[in-house]
Amino acid sequence: MERRWGILLMAYGGPNSLDEVEPYYTHILRGRKPSAEMLHELMERYRAIGGKSPINDITFAQAQLLQERLNTRPPSLVPRPVSVYVGMKHWHPYIAEAIERMASDGVTEAVGIILAPHYSRRSVAEYIGYATEALERLGNPIRFRFVESWATHPLLVRCFAEKVRKAWAQFDEAERDKVQLLFTAHSLPQRILEWNDPYPDELRRTCEAVAQTVGVSDWLFAYQSASGTDWLGPDILEVLDELAGQGHRYVLVAPIGFLCDHLEVLYDIDIEATEKAQKLGIKLRRIEMPNTDPLLIGALADIAQKAMSGVEDGFRLARKAA
Prior knowledge:
- This protein is an alpha/beta fold.
- The protein has two domains: 5-150 and 293-317, Rossmann fold (3-Layer(aba) Sandwich); 154-286, 3-Layer(aba) Sandwich (Rossmann fold), CATH 3.40.50.1400.
- It has eleven helices and nine strands.
- The chain has helices at residues 21-28, 36-48, 55-70, 95-104, 124-137, 154-168, 199-214, 236-245, 263-266, 268-280, 294-308; strands at 5-11, 82-88, 109-114, 143-149, 180-186, 219-224, 250-254, 283-286, 316-317.
- It has a five-stranded mixed beta sheet with strand order 2-1-3-4-9, sandwiched between helices. Strands 6-5-7-8 form a four-stranded parallel beta sheet, with helices on both faces.
- The longest helix is centred in the N-terminal third of the chain and has 16 residues, at 55-70.
């Protein structure tokens, strides 16, 4: 049988309209419908950022750019043709739908890349689990190699570093030496620490690499977007309180746990954290997200190309692949 390669980009997914918020939320809750209060709160958040999540459009744009990048590389490095697919964890096309399409297209070998560079059993492992279950239902027609971590890939670090430099330059010249750099990432339940989950360490390594590249030694880290009280902290809003109490008036937020604009960036930082900062007398700015930045696409292309050859360089493959 002729070998045909495919790349599967996996992302969280989001509603394309307010009408899709309820079924989207229901899927996140594993089939349990949200209460009227929970649904209203989430819908208001999406309404505040324009009535939809941009994550789906951005992910498909990333996939298109990645496919173009891979298919311009020499055939000796990247087999032809290679197609890039998108599978979402919580919205269409679901990961299972994407894998079904890959199988029907005749894909026999594939690399799965989660658009979340930091491994955790509560995040990346779940994506791989969804994909593995879908493959098993189909009789394992595709041999997958899953990338489980790329927290310090050089091009990813460089991409974030350039975003930090650009945002720092937007402060007035007299303010720049007073700016506090604050990295953030999505919080997870504290019980992951009982599993010796590497998530906090992977986040720290990304922060250290980006800060070193920028040349900043004084930086802080906070979690954001927690869904409960027993989640990892400190929370960004608490840290802003502490910074204000210490006399800080300028903060640059770098959400290194995310790769594109979506609710946790456009609402949790741009609206909620910004309003908090304003009340505290803090000027808060946020870096641009990588979105379709050529450096991010370059990182994905490098990972895909090397993973197809089974070479781990700047990333880590899952030990158990389907």
